Amino acid sequence: METIHVKLKLIPSPRGRVETLPAYQTPGSAAVDLRANLDGPLVVPAGKSALIPSGLSIELPSPGFVALVFARSGLASRHGLCLTNGVGVIDSDYRGEIKIGLFNLSDADYEIQPGDRVAQMCVMPVCACRFELVSELQQSRRGGGGFGSTGRA
Q1: pTM
Q2: Terminal CA-to-CA distance of the chain, rounded, Å?
Q3: Do the beta carbons of residue 49 and residue 10 sit within 8 Å?
Q4: pLDDT score of 16
Q5: CA–CA distance from 31 to each of 26, 55, 105, 115, 152 (Å)?
């Protein structure tokens, strides 16, 4: 795995609580966990959303990198907590606090404690596109087949 240098700024919560540095949980982890930088418990009501501060802002090597924020699989599968926007995109020129929008798909309220791991962030290289307007696209085997067009198995 290639290592890049990412500058990190810790942002205290309203009462001055400062979150710890993000860390990979295992040598094979692709993403670091983002934790709730809260002063006290926060309830995400059933069928509602909440914005969770991470206490972190980053400076990615620019241009050419993006940080992507994903849901944690355990929270999603066991408690119905997913990201409000599917995947969060942290552009290389963004310097604000990373905040996690969580939506509770379940029928039960979920309480987040200070320091709980609420999302995961992966830093990846990106390519800029130069678009070329054409009147026709090259044919492919799939063509315009959409959802489910390649079969079930």
Answers
A1: 0.88
A2: 32
A3: no
A4: 85
A5: 10, 17, 24, 17, 30
- Amino acid letter, 57: S
Q: Retrieve residue 117's tokens.
A: 């791991």
Burial (0-12, 13-18, 19+ Cβ within 10 Å), 72: buried
Q: What does the CA dihedral 130, 134, 139, 143 come to, rounded to 10 degrees? A: 80
Give the tokens for residue 130: 């130069």
Q: Which domains does the chain have, with CATH numbers?
A: 7-125 (2.70.40.10)
Return the structure tokens found at 80: 């119905």
Residue 147 vs residues 62, 85, 142: alpha-carbon distances, Å = 35, 21, 11
The C-alpha R_g of the chain, in whole angstroms, comes to 19
Measured CA distances, 41 to 25, 53, 102, 115 (Å): 24, 13, 15, 10
Segments of the chain scoring below 70 in pLDDT: none
Sole residue written with tokens 């709730």: 36
| CA–CA gap between residue 48 and residue 66 (Å, rounded) | 28
Q: Are residues 58 and 8 in contact, defined by beta-carbon separation less than 8 angstroms?
A: yes
Q: Which two tokens stand for residue 150?
A: 């390649």
The residue behind tokens 């940080």 is 67
* Neighbouring C-beta atoms of residue 1, cutoff 10 Å: 7
